[in-house]
């Protein structure tokens, strides 16, 4: 009885060790990036800016949000952001009234246009913020998008 | 393994215009199935685009990116015939890498 118990323990340990090895190996495959969980968990624009490393942001006319005024289907809302600020390093899309504010953050290396376009889900009519990091400072533009059918019910 | 991405990379002037369509559920974790159980979140968290060994765009995504995500951007320094490589990894560790050849253009 006792020996059987030991056997079980051994096997269990072995499986755990394997899982640990697999866990360690995964990040080594070159596609392991950090995912800023704190920033994606935030519930307000101000908190998101803080979680992304800024203390606040300044409104800027040099950021352009291209999106519909009224989105018929909140599950697919096309949003494009273009920054004319020199040395734009990152563009983030924030949706104020979604369950989690931050939708996406794009890092823009030198040589890539400070422009990005994607599609997002919106739970309800909300202000959408484009938060741009340029030369270490934070700037934003806002646009309200009206949603007729919410996108979070799937 | 998820379905391949649909990637289009075209020269427009001196820039490479990249459009990507990925096949992914992008489940928010807030939706309920027919039985009323919450469907666990399943979404792409990181996307990386490289060209000639250099990262030209990297993104972190939350659950509010639409199902079958679309992404469009432009970068300088590419030439027709060269490759653009795009990789994503989701919250369950599933991943996919696809590449496309830059097409000429005007």
Average pLDDT rating of chain B: 93
In total, how many domains does the architecture of chain B comprise?
1
Average pLDDT metric of chain A: 83
- Helix tally of chain A equals 3
Count of DSSP strands of chain B: 7
Briefly note the CATH topology name of chain B. Immunoglobulin-like
Largest interface: A-B, 41 and 38 residues
Class by alpha and beta content of chain A:
alpha+beta
Helix percent band of chain A: 10-25%
Radius of gyration of chain B: 16 Å
Tell me which CATH architecture of the largest domain in chain A applies here: Sandwich
User: How are helices and strands ordered from N to C of chain A?
Assistant: HHHEEEEEEEEE
Report strand % of chain B: over 45%
Radius of gyration of chain A: 22 Å
Return the string of H and E elements of chain B: EEEEEEE
CATH superfamily of the largest domain in chain A: SoxY domain
Question: How many distinct folded domains of chain A?
Answer: 2
General description of the model:
The complex is a heterodimer of chains A (154) and B (106). Chain A is α+β, with helices and mostly antiparallel strands and 154 residues long. The termini of chain A are far apart. The longest helix of chain A has 24 residues, at 2-25. Helix content of chain A is 23%, strand content 38%. In chain A, the strands form two sheets. In chain A, strands 1, 3, 5, 6, 8 and 9 form a six-stranded mixed sheet that branches. Chain A has a three-stranded antiparallel sheet with strand order 2-4-7, with no helix packed on it. Chain A has two domains: 1-34; 35-147, Immunoglobulin-like. Chain A is globular, with a radius of gyration of 22 Å. Chain A has three helices and nine strands; from the N terminus they run αααβββββββββ. Chain B has a single domain (6-101), classed as Immunoglobulins (Immunoglobulin-like, Sandwich). Chain B starts with 5 loop residues before the first strand and ends in a 5-residue tail after the last strand. In chain B, strands 4-3-6-7 form a four-stranded antiparallel sheet, with no helix packed on it. A three-stranded antiparallel sheet of chain B has the order 1-2-5, with no helix packed on it. Chain B is elongated. Chain B has 106 residues and is mostly beta strands. Chain B has no helices and seven strands. In chain B, a hairpin with a 4-residue loop joins strand 6 (83-90) and strand 7 (95-101). Chain A binds chain B through residues 26, 31-36, 39-40, 75-78, 80, 95, 98-100, 102-109, 111-113, 115-122, 151-154, and chain B through 15, 26-28, 30-31, 39, 45-46, 48, 54-67, 69-77, 87, 89, 93, 95, 97. Strand 6 of chain A pairs antiparallel with strand 4 of chain B.
